[in-house]
Amino acid sequence: MFVDAISASNENPNDPRNREVIHPSDDLFDANLKTPINSSPFTRAFINNLPAYRKGLTPLRRGLEVGMAHGYWLLGPFVKLGPLRNTEVANLAGLLSTVGLVLISALMISLYGSSNPPSPTPTLTTPSAPREFSHSEGWNEYGSGFLIGGIGGAIVAYFLLTNIGLFKGLTGL
Fold first, then answer.
1. Which end of the chain is less enclosed by CB atoms within 10 A, N or C?
2. Based on the number of CB atoms within 10 Å of its own CB, is 48 exposed (0-12), middle (13-18) or buried (19 or more)?
3. Max Cα separation, the chain?
4. In this structure, are residues 49 and 43 in contact, taking their beta carbons and an 8 Å threshold?
5. Angle, alpha carbons 162-166-168 (nearest 5°)
6. Buried b / exposed e across 51-82, counting CB within 10 Å, b at 16+?
7. What SS3 state is found at 33?
8. pLDDT value, residue 99
9. Distance (Å, whole) CA 40 – CA 104
């Protein structure tokens, strides 16, 4: 009897003894396993608050947010690790490299959108995937926003990086 109760509890994901066990979400053939990490409320809230999944945003706005973040952080590796890193034009070379990479990425986003991509699949962490990405117009808007945001983010990072001495003087650090 005791062994039967333990065996029955193995199939119950709500049993406190099974909290660290991986379970299939709903469909065994979905390849989306329910783990303590991807099914936690914190993870779901974090992922659903990213620009790609946040409700109420247009594809252009999604692309702007994602592009600004990528343009901003991509400048640093090009400046500090690029071939002109120890020269006086390192910041400018990093800016031009970042703009080039953002341009190529925006082009690839538009090309993907024109390839008739499948509709977004709802998953365990993102149950309501945006429907704007089920047609090429949404992807083209997203790519346009990514291009504008990426170039803008790179310019802001370049401005901050080239004027760091001015900011240090203003703050007294």
1. N
2. middle
3. 78
4. no
5. 110
6. bbbeeebebbbbbbbbbbebbbebbeebbeee
7. strand
8. 97
9. 36
Q: Which residue's structure tokens are 């993102």?
A: 126
Task: Note the pLDDT tens digit of each residue in 34-49.
Answer: 777 877 889 888 988 9
Render 35-85 in DSSP notation, one character per residue. Answer: -TTTTSHHHHHHHHTSTTT-TT--HHHHHHHHHHHHHHHHHHHHHHHSTTT
Structure tokens at 89: 């034009």
Per-residue H/E/C for 72-140: HHHHHHHHHHCCCCCCCCHHHHHHHHHHHHHHHHHHHHHHHHHCCCCCCCCCCCCCCCCHHHHCHHHHH
Task: Answer for the pair 44, 127: CB distance below 8 angstroms, yes or no.
Answer: no
70-119: pLDDT as tens digits:
999 999 999 999 999 999 999 999 999 999 999 999 999 999 999 888 88
The one-letter amino acid at 18: N
Q: The tokens of 42 are what?
A: 């914190």
The token duo for 135 is 């047609």
